[in-house]
Amino acid sequence: MGYRRGLFLLQGYAVFSIDAVPAFNDNYIWVIHEDGHALAVDPGEAAPLEAFLQRNGLTLGGVLVTHHHGDHTGGIAQLAKRFPGLVVHGPATLAGVTAPTGDGRMVHWRSHAFRVLSVPGHTLDHLAYYGEGRLFCGDTLFGAGCGRVFEGTAEMMFRSLQALAALPADTLFYPAHEYTLSNLAFAVMVEPANTALRQRLAADSLKRERGEPTLPATLAGELATNPFLRTQVPEVIAAANTEAGFTLPDACAVFATLRSWKNRS
Ligand code: ZN
Ligand code: FE
């Protein structure tokens, strides 16, 4: 797969690029860089990131970690050896984190700043990083889907997703996995008559055929197509009620039903 190159010059924001470095089967290590300096999100393995940095003449100065799973943290020790003084931002409980952070705090890198959001559900320690119109959300929000609930409760995950969905609609979000097409297949089962969803499936299928990431994507697009953010939409509620076999009491119960339905499908 090739690298997705994005150079951003937004009003009031400094210039930086963001690239997707593929790792394992379907992970992305997002690399934010400018002037030879780089910040990497969730380096699950070091080798593909080191190769990318070397090829582009970049020095790694910082890491953002979203949660403790190995596919997001496995490369940190090797990178810390290779880049002395590497600042690793992440949950306080995580080995290798040099700059523990948490909900409501800010992370600074060069002239850029990211707000830290606690988004428990997939894991209890899960953090997201939001700044300059971009959201790095690990395994919480995916293209057309969301992470599995491993450590938290469905209600926690629901609230975390609602908090992310409340960010500005033009926010670009950068998940840690390329799961969009399989998520879209599930979304079409839930909402077969959703035209925005059909259009997204066609567009994203084409991107994957070309070997391109489907990500980043906008929150506006998720609000129109991601069933886990559409638990107030009558068609989604009806599909979840049918799946449950009874009338679900609220949006959180619709979410929980969709999540367990997806796990089985
Ligand atoms: Zn994970
Ligand atoms: Fe993961």
Task: Explain what this protein looks like in three dimensions.
- The chain has helices spanning 47-55, 70-73, 76-82, 154-165, 180-190, 195-209, 219-225, 234-244, 251-264, and strands at residues 5-8, 16-23, 27-34, 37-41, 59-64, 87-90, 99-100, 106-109, 112-118, 127-131, 134-138, 141-142, 145-146, 172-175, 217-218.
- The protein has a seven-stranded mixed β-sheet, covered by helices on one side.
- The mean pLDDT is 95.
- 45% of the residues are buried.
- It has a single domain (4-264), classed as Metallo-beta-lactamase, Chain A (4-Layer Sandwich), CATH 3.60.15.
- Helix 8 (234-244) packs across helix 9.
- The chain is α/β, with parallel strands linked by helices and 265 residues long.
- It is built from nine helices and 15 strands.
- Bound molecules: zinc ion (ZN) and fe (iii) ion.
CATH class designation: Alpha Beta
Radius of gyration: 18 Å
Low-confidence stretches: none
The helix content, as a percent range, equals 25-40%
- Beta content comes to 25-35%
Number-wise, the strands total 15
Heterogens: zinc ion, fe (iii) ion
**Helix run count:** 9
What's the number of domains?
Answer: 1
Structural class: alpha/beta
**Helices and strands, in N-to-C order?**
EEEEHEHHEEEEEEEEHEHHEHHH
Strand order of the largest sheet: 1-2-3-4-5-6-7
Query: Main β-sheet: number of strands, strand sense, barrel status?
Result: 7 strands, mixed
CATH fold topology: Metallo-beta-lactamase, Chain A
Distance between the termini: 27 Å
Assigned CATH architecture: 4-Layer Sandwich
Overall mean confidence score, pLDDT: 95
Overall morphology: globular
